[in-house]
Write a structure and sequence with these properties.
By secondary structure, the protein is α+β, with helices and mostly antiparallel strands. It is 26% helix and 27% strand. The chain contains 6 helices and 11 strands. The strands form 2 sheets. It has a 9-stranded antiparallel beta sheet, with helices on one face. A hairpin with a 2-residue loop joins strand 2 and strand 3. The two termini are 23 Å apart.
């Protein structure tokens, strides 16, 4: 989901953490991973290890701005996801639209039905929210990029979601988060098992969610604000869980046109 981007801190903005759109820009940028130089002329294709080193260095440089270390063993998954990352190839988690509340042409929120599905989940509890999201997403990346029982690239799906929890007084988020990746439809019947024991394949039951889209940086403050805004818009927010919410990320949180959603989960 956060992921699936990882810029989560407020204040002065450091370099953007690696996100799906960062991967787009690197595959679309002639200097990133192609046989063309900055002038558009054809030149010799870089060696495999040189490509990996360049990509890893890029990830490490932006990771340092968020107090996240990107280890050497991320080089191959980074390269593979970069090569395979195309927006038109991303599978969207299917849902049924049940209702949409609008005002003056603006969508206030939607009510959706998500079906039973399998997700690859990793629980994180780092000191900072952004660290949990970034480290969790890197684990998910490895699973997607062949570090699974099938040894194949699984394909990217959106949104990458993050399950968050509030404290008893509902004034702040707890440190415990779950980063989750929806298994592509063709793998739902028999998901490849993760090589990383921290990743668990979970079957989530059918769920009705109330969702509101928003733009901007996703951090503890903005998430709490969006929770409050959606609670005010709903006629009966008490029908939803009061301490568990989902952040859904569709695009790069550092981009000018960021696409995020906050989900409220209807009680079963």
């Amino acid at each position: 989901m956060q992921r699936e981007g990882c810029r989560m801190s407020g204040g002065p903005e450091p370099p953007a953490m690696i996100t799906l759109e960062d991967l787009d820009s690197m595959t679309e940028d002639p200097g990133a991973d192609s046989a063309y130089n900055s002038n558009g002329s054809l030149e010799e294709e870089p060696m495999e290890d040189e490509q990996q080193e360049r990509l890893l260095t890029y990830w490490q440089s932006v990771g340092r701005g968020h107090q996240v270390d990107v280890p050497e063993d991320m080089a191959e998954p980074i390269q593979q996801l970069t090569r395979n990352n195309r927006q038109q190839e991303r599978e969207t988690v299917p849902f049924l639209l049940l209702n949409r509340k609008e005002k003056c042409g603006e969508v206030l929120y939607e009510k959706r039905q998500y079906g039973k599905a399998k997700w690859a989940c990793v629980k994180m509890q780092e000191e900072q929210y952004e660290q949990s999201i970034c480290l969790g997403f890197m684990k998910i990346m490895k699973y997607i990029c062949e570090q699974n029982s099938s040894g194949v690239y699984l394909g990217m799906t959106i949104p990458i979601v993050t399950v968050v929890h509030t404290n008893e007084s509902q004034t702040e988020l707890t440190r415990s988060v779950t980063v989750a990746y929806y298994l592509p439809a063709e793998l739902q019947g028999m998901p490849p098992q993760p090589s990383d024991s921290d990743i668990i394949i979970e079957e989530w039951p059918p769920t009705v969610v109330y969702t509101r889209g928003f733009s901007g940086v996703t951090n503890e403050e903005s998430i709490m604000r969006e929770i409050s805004l959606l609670a005010e818009l709903l006629e009966s927010p008490e029908l939803c869980l009061q301490d568990t919410f989902i952040m859904a990320g569709y695009t790069n949180p550092a981009a000018a046109n960021r696409q995020n959603e906050i989900w409220f989960l209807q009680r079963s």
